[in-house]
Amino acid sequence: MNKFFISGSPHIQGEESTKKIMYGVVIAMIPTMLFSIYFFGVDAIRVFLIAIVASLFFEWIIQKYLIKGALTINDGSALVTAILLALNLPSNLPTWMIIIGALVAIGMAKMSFGGLGKNVFNPALVARVFLLVSFPVEMTSWPKPSPITEGLADVVTGPTPLGIVKEGLGANKTMSELAPEIPSYTQGLMGDMGGSMGEVSAIALILGGVYMMWKKIITWHIPVSMLLTVAIFSGIFWGVDPEHYADPVFHMLTGGMLLGAIFMATDMVSSPMTKSGQLVYGFGIGLLTILIRMWGAYPEGVSFAILIMNAVVPLINRGFKPKRFGVNPGVALNK
Amino acid sequence: MGILRTFALGGIHPAENKLSSNAPIETLPVPKQAIVPLGQNLGAPSKPIVKKGDEVKVGQLIAEAGGFISTNIHSPVSGKVLKIDNAIDGSGYKRPCIIINTTEDEWADGIDTSKDIVSEITLESKEIIEKIKNAGIVGLGGATFPTYVKLMPPTGKIAEYLIINGVECEPYLTADHRMMLEMGQEIIIGIRILMKALNVKKAFIGIENNKPDAISHLNELLKGSDDIEVQPLKVQYPQGGEKQLIKASVNREVPSGKLPIEVGCVVQNVGTAFAVYEAVQKNKPLIERVVTVTGKAVKKPSNFMVRIGTQISELIDAAEGLPEDTGKIIGGGPMMGKAITSLEIPVVKGTSGILLMKKDESSRNVEGPCIRCSKCTYVCPMGLEPFLLSKAAKLGNYEMAENEAIMDCIECGSCQYGCPSAIPLLDYLRLGKLKVGQILRNRNNK
Fold it and tell me: Which residue of A22, A270, A309, B153 is most buried, as measured by CB atoms within 10 A?
């Protein structure tokens, strides 16, 4: 007698897989990686390699000896975390600090919650903030970009544009006095300014975002609502008092705004499940970012804003449900 | 062509694989033995009225309705009742069946077996419904809900539109497609009969635009009349779902937990319309149907007109045999069909297709952890959250499952199809629905 498989429907499976999604994100990050290597040179390659090797190693060893489950380093998620972590670091960060960052990201933020899919917070951001509060000096002396094509030069460090503005405004300077010190829009678009490896080039980040939307890895909801919120709030203050508040385009192009909006806030695991929830989540991140940037102690607020909103996600998931079929259907004929 | 109509929420577009769409319907020889299960409709099984040794003719009543939601069953062959015994049917379980050994092909009196088309509808609404009831007609799209019940709206509810389901959104299946091409005239008369029975003035035939030949053929036949309108629909699964089709056709939403009549609609399948034509105009009860036999390894993907009770092995033989590489047999389409355990099971009223899957297509992918990508939520045509419902069912939190509207699930499988972690979401959802259904019944009985 013939033996046949028996299972419940459906009997066909779509093309999607976790692996494809994760490697799709990796592909989307390639332009940003290339730009960072162009601007920060060999040091950038070092940061990427260390972050990747360390993250994969921690993922492997924890999965094997602590969780004792099937091997997961091939699913691509640790690679995504590793690259995101690297993109959040200054290119001159000492190697041992990068390794600690990888341990915090993979070990503390991801595996201790149970591994892929279980983490509440974005692992790479947890690591960034951990490093920022542990090593404030190393994490805030940002190398100035020096394109590889212009030959090897000594690394010059300096504050980020956001840092310049924060400090300047704090010292009662006006925006027009600070103007010569901050990068032009073109420099911001290309990435020719101080900052972490991944946050400098707007063009590369947007390219990656468009790719992910085309591949349906992310939807527009989180980035657009986050950026729109930032634009509106910073726009209001700038409109009222342009001498004491930076303009919206400056806010968009500097710091981790685009990196956060495109790659960090859209992390599937730690963002809301419905599109309406995602709009709220993006709004929250945008608002918190601006609050921190304008009145907080740190010049940059994207990472804190995302982590705070990560914690709110379970609540958002409860409050924002998808539109159900046949609930409030409008006119019904036979009452 | 402009923007095609479709339903609003969710939906997926799996590979269509309509391998047999160009294969004309072939009538298979009468089987040597017919195995006729007593449970062929949604609702109560039928009660046999013949016994071992009785001589029966084709179309003779052999089992009658066992309740309000139940149907008559007629003999698909002429011969001698061998026994009434348990045999494995499409469910995989042994269920009572009437087994008839065929002798000749002698039809019961009064059945018009000619091919002449009778277009004049002489009967009144009540008589039509009675005839449809007596002929044992059920929804032939696969749900097998007794047709006559749908034609009798509860008092106070009025049908405004008849919507004919020619969507055939399941991949692979082509039975409805071929019927629309080859039996268009009969189907249209069947639709007018149903309209008369329901006293509605307007009918729509929803057809996905991957069947342009069917759309233009029916439009040709309907030239000059405006009571029936063909609606080309954008290809999207599960458009053949009753609620989705109503949304696509007339932009009305059946309220949660209610029937289509709530929004003035009655939906019938094209195959059902054909069966209605035969029953009302030709006195022919439902004893045969069109079945697609298909699959990537099948030598001759086909559409067969077969008698109910024919074993599927005979259909597979007619499609030039069971491929060596067959790993799974599905009764119906790949999205909602049921895996079949044996080649001996009979074709029943609800069998729309036999799909033979190759071995490498047969097993599921390895399940991974939920990465909370929310794709299941995006594709759910009912606006549910399958990840949440499956988890609630898995953890036995049926109260949550009920509150999150698990009973709205139409089991279309879109969530599981699109899950990148290959989580068997629908398995858990079915379990949840079963349990919540029990809880609801217990509550209502108190």
Answer: A309
Q: Do B418 and A325 touch (CB under 8 A)?
A: no
Residues B155 and B286 in one domain: yes
pLDDT at res. B1: 46
Taking the C-alpha atoms of residue B147 and residue B272, their distance in angstroms, rounded to an integer, is 8
Provide the whole-model pTM: 0.90
Q: What is the ipTM of this complex?
A: 0.88
CA–CA separation, A126 and B95 (whole Å): 59
| Structural domain boundaries enclosing B391 | 375-445
How many distinct helices (H) and strands (E) make up chain B? 14, 17
Give the CA count within 13 Å in the CB-facing half-sphere of A66: 14
- Whether A18 and B422 have beta carbons less than 8 Å apart is answered as no
pLDDT tens-digit series, residues A21-70: 999 999 999 999 999 999 888 889 999 999 999 999 999 999 988 888 88
Measured between CB atoms, does A333 come within 8 Å of chain B? Answer: yes
- How far is B342 from B340, CA to CA, in rounded Å? 6
Closest Cα in chain B, distance from residue A203 (Å)? 26
- Residues B274 and B239 occupy one common structural domain: yes
In this prediction, what percent of chain B has a pLDDT beyond 70? 100
Q: What is the mean pLDDT of residues B210-233?
A: 94
| Residue B261 included in any domain | yes
A268 close to B (CB below 8 A): yes
Place of tokens 């799974």: B328
Specify whether B194 is located in the same domain as B343. Answer: yes
